[in-house]
Amino acid sequence: MAFQGSLRELPLPDIIPLVAVSGETGVFTLKNGAEAGKIFLRKGQIVHAAVSTLVGEHAVYELARWQQGEFLFTPGTESEVESVDKSNTNLLMEAARQIDEWKILSKKIGSTRMVPVFSAQEGQSSVSFSPTEWAVVSKVDERRNIEEIAAGLGHGAFEVCKVIYGLLTSGVLALREDLRRLPLDRLQRMSAEDQARVAEQIYRFGQQLMAGQERSGQLDGALRLFRAEMESGRGADAVLDLVRASEKVVSAQLGPNQAKVFLDRVGLLLQSA
Hints:
Layout: E1 3-6, H1 12-20, E2 26-32, E3 35-42, E4 45-51, E5 54-55, H2 57-64, E6 70-75, H3 88-105, E7 115-118, H4 131-137, H5 146-153, H6 157-169, E8 173-176, H7 184-189, H8 192-209, H9 217-231, H10 236-254, H11 256-272
Antiparallel strand pairs: 1-6, 2-3, 2-6, 3-4, 4-5, 7-8
């Protein structure tokens, strides 16, 4: 019999034991907005989990941190893959520890899908890194998100988040939303005229958010660069550069929450264009 509910009312660490105690085999499907993940049980034991780019126990820990969304347990569905070899008890104990630590980390890191970028803070001269910090910094290319950096290092996203938290606190890094979540295929299919029209609307979104702020003039520079790139035939890439530059200005001045608002509006614009 299927079992479903809200993660807000029943978080994953509470759900798993309810099903595991009866020795069920099946799959949990979890959804949180556009994100979805799965956890497979065999005779009550977690054997496989996956969400986004994460697989195995790190996927379990990521899903355990979801505080909203829905879950559905479908009995009888087995996984052909085994990516988890820890006991449920050990998994849930580690998940509980990470949930407690995440309450602190989440004050600066909204999601492991965010992209680390180098901060443009003034007055920084030389910075020394620990070997662990250097390993993370060396993977920052301002395009890969935290999960992808973690995968490249062979670490869990949570462990990388702890390092990034320190680098955010010291001002070495900042975070921005991943532009790849935007409907870029629509942008690439547009004519140059439509791309220019969309770019002007994106510029106005930024101006509305930055009204009265000191750095609002930086958006004018981003728009001028866009126009120069359009003249050289860069098309969709020019629009993306405008979005990237504008989002960086908004994030630096207003914070990551407003930067997310900006990108959400850009996404809606591209979907309706």
